[in-house]
Amino acid sequence: MFINKDLNDKFNPVTSHVHNTYSKVDGSGAAIVIIENDRVVTENYWGSHSKSLNARTTQEDTQFHVASVRKSYIGFAVAYAVHHGYIASIDDLVTKYLPELDTSLLNGTTLRNLLTHTHGLMEIDGEISREFALGQSWAYRGINIHLLTKIVKKTTGKTVSQILSEQVFQPLSFTESGWYAESNDKLAEVIREPGEPNWHPYKSTDGDQMNMYVSARELAYWGYIHLKEGFINEKQIVDKEVLKLATTLQSPKLIDVDLPQNGFLWFVKDLPAQKSEIGELVPKGSYQILGYTGVAVLVIPKHHVVAVRMFNSFGSPAGFDYLPDIRSFGDTVMRCL
Q: What does residue 176 show for φ and ψ, rounded to 5 degrees?
């Protein structure tokens, strides 16, 4: 896949915003790519793959660890399973597909709850417990991702990575997006804060672990595929309905209306919500996903814009609050329009 470039200074304030964030987090490399009206209008790279002497310079084919941004790819796989009938409905009980789980503990938990972080479950040392009553609140935990990837494999007979490869990566010639068991010279190192545990070297490449790396340009293309509803180069290459499912509001009605809102794991902008990670100025119908390494992709259909930022930092250093920063990122994009 290739998108023509028409680089200009329209989004210079966003470039400055990303560079400013880069100076605050503990990373060695960063990037920004913005697509507007079917053209790459901003593209910049800074730093290197690590803090080592003679480390590879950050460039177009540099692949960053995307952390929780991988959930948008998992959301696609679930939407694929729903659209093709492998999963009858996201309002089905989780235990319909995973009957070995404790029915009393899950207590009516549905796939919708897993997809929108309203399940109330948590897992510590392999033991599942309930954090809050089903559908009564919102919490960002890992157990829902573990369960969703199991359901995808059980119902479709394919792994998340196989579905993405067949449905997206191969048809669009993506070569800089995937799950890796071993390092290579195109993968930027994850820079960790002192005292943070080392990043786990996961061996599975099924798409069920946190070892996904993507280049800035292919993450922007990923957002662009959703923006265009799979209609690329005058052809319907990716199924429109799968993409629409993934980015449409799916959250159940919650007691606290200020909690974040989700599609198939994407954060979506619908009604005003004080705890949303999407900027106040970003219009309704937009969607975004963010990773713990600071990586983010924001899609604004109303203005035909995709904005991607990439860092290779891990977590938030002292004094840095990611939530105001990512909201400000989106609001800065909007001020440029």
A: -125, 30
β-bridge pairing 235-236 and 127-130: unpaired
CA–CA separation, 332 and 17 (whole Å): 8
Residue of 155, 182, 189, 180 lying closest to 70 (CA atoms): 180
Spell out, as residue ranges, where the chain has pLDDT lower than 70: 193-201
CATH of domain 12-335: 3.40.710.10
How many residues in total does the chain contain?
A: 337
Name the burial class of residue 10, with classes exposed (0-12), middle (13-18) and buried (19+) by CB atoms within 10 angstroms of its CB. Answer: middle
Angle, nearest 10°, between helix axes 70-83 and 143-156? Answer: 40
Nearest Cα to Cα of residue 151 among 117, 104, 107, 101:
101
Q: Which residue has the tokens 């800035």?
A: 216
The answer, as to whether pTM is greater than 0.70, is yes
pLDDT tens for each residue of 150-196: 999 999 999 999 999 999 999 999 999 999 999 899 999 999 766 56
Q: Would you list the domain boundaries of the chain?
A: 12-335
Q: Buried b / exposed e across 119-147, counting CB within 10 Å, b at 16+?
A: bbbbeeeeeeeeeeebbeebeeeebbbbb
Reading the block at residue 260, the tokens are 């974040």
From the list 78, 112, 90, 106, the residue with the least C-alpha distance to 252 is 112
